[in-house]
Amino acid sequence: MSESRPRLGGLLSREPHVVAAGVDVLADALHQQAVPVERVDWRPPPPGTEESLATVLGDPRHATANADAVGRMLSARPQLVDVRPAQEVLGLERGTFLHAGPPIDWERASGPMRGALIGAMLLEDLAGTPEEAEKALGQGAATLEPCHHHATVGPMAGLVSPSMWMFVVKDTEHGGTAYCSLNEGLGKVLRYGAYGPEVIERLRWMGGVLGPLLREAVRLHGPLDLTTLMAQAMQMGDELHNRNRAATSLLMRELAPAFASTDSSRADIAGALTFIGGNDHFFLNVGMAAAKCAADAARDVPGSSLVVAMARNGTDFGIQVSGTGDRWFTGPAGVPDGLYLGSYGPADANPDIGDSAITETVGMGGFALAAAPAIVRFVGGEVPDALAATRRMYEITMAEHPALQVPLLSFRGTPAGIDVTRVVRTGILPVIDTGIAGREAGTGQVGAGLVEPPGEIFTQALHALAGEG
């Protein structure tokens, strides 16, 4: 043996670097002896997934397909180009409603979904009272379809009815278009399942005043680059799901001069700006449509295990994957763990609901918690928890977002592009920060917190990719 060659690779001549994976017995013992140890959050793949993992990872298309899909997702250039009624842009007919999440019918609908449907019936004058609306819905008077089936996303219950006005966002890089309704604010609002007179009155004002005014302002302004706006907002402390204060302010700064240049009355302009200025979540719906554009750009790449939609209807949690087309993989939606308003508690909470997890799908929201330390005051936890959550998401994603960067992580791009195979292999589930709707129809919002999808939906998707499901 050559004397110049370190024995045992230098193991005996330098301090050891210990990495512990799996159970904590070894790591705990070393820690008690003051030995530095790096813990790796790892667990073996669930039983029964080994063959599917080998098939998918061994597919010669897999690496190239994922690079293509995530590349399309991250190169999307969404721009706000218009605001128009749903009946115009989506062709919704009277009695047809879009909802959040995978497909569901009235019989399986949760309390907040039922409340939002009742409110939509009242808004569209399809019923005169909540009781009439509920009876008609139970008799099949309305057609229910997922927002995602119409290039649309909606927060919480996600209800879209023909008369509602929609943000129109176009991807100038890949040509797709996505839509989202206007944000109502917080508290007792339709998307949380409330349908009282104040809810319907607000929605009618939004349809009669706010929507037309926004249309004029957006058209006067011209296409608004949302990637640049969102990147700036993240530098200012937004994660672009549950915190949109900076993004809403930046949007107002862009559109306010155009508002003032419209032919609308001073009272209507003042009312619209006051409403937007008092609603820190106003940008959420714009950002959701931008995220939908980016995710849709990555669809239908054969062999790709990239998640292109995560959505909840208050009963089921569903995902769609690039390589499996429009198929939904579903499991039971969980109740978020978080902070509650007033006297509300976990017993009042409905299982998770909404299309807003489209933000996490493309690297925002829960995946960007480290960019928004103040969010912990809204969803619970401490600042180190937010940092840890973002770092953990790098383990299950394919890339880092080139525009959305985290100052506290030395401007590292947010983790983006959830990979089904990595979720199954590591057991790490996507983290989503979300509002919490009351379980009973008509309650409204009861809190906010964090939630994870059911692990089995990623296993379902894996088997489908392997041709076994």
From TrEMBL:
What is one Pfam family matched by this protein? AllG
Coiled coil ranges (UniProt) are: none
The organism's superkingdom is given as Bacteria
InterPro entries, sorted? AllG-like, OXTCase_su_AllG_h-dom
**Name of this chain's protein:** DUF1116 domain-containing protein
